[in-house]
Write a structure and sequence with these properties.
With 79 residues, this protein is mainly alpha-helical. 66% of the residues lie in helices and 0% in strands. It is built from four helices and no strands. Helix 3 (47-57) packs across helix 4. The longest helix has 20 residues, at 3-22. The protein is globular.
Length: 79
């Protein structure tokens, strides 16, 4: 990740965190290893593992690498 990309990501993350806080919506920061372990899809660097798990949990959605983690994190958050 380059400097500009890292800054843009951090800014977006901060904006989301601020919006949740301002709206009084509780949230929890969770490391990838925690939600991956809970969902039985520890990747150890292999993104195909999370993609397969997301497709299994959401069969009606065409899961791509771009959305697999988001789907799984959302699923973890509902538990």
């Amino acid at each position: 990740m380059g400097v500009v990309s890292a800054f843009t990501f951090g800014r977006g993350y901060g904006n989301i965190e601020m919006a949740l806080t301002a709206a009084g919506i509780p949230f929890e920061r969770v490391r990838p290893q925690v939600w991956q372990k809970a969902l039985g899809c520890l990747t150890k660097g292999d993104k195909n593992i999370t993609k397969r798990k997301a497709q299994e949990l959401f069969p009606s959605i065409k899961v791509t690498h771009a959305i697999a983690d988001s789907l799984l994190i959302a699923n973890y958050g509902t538990k």
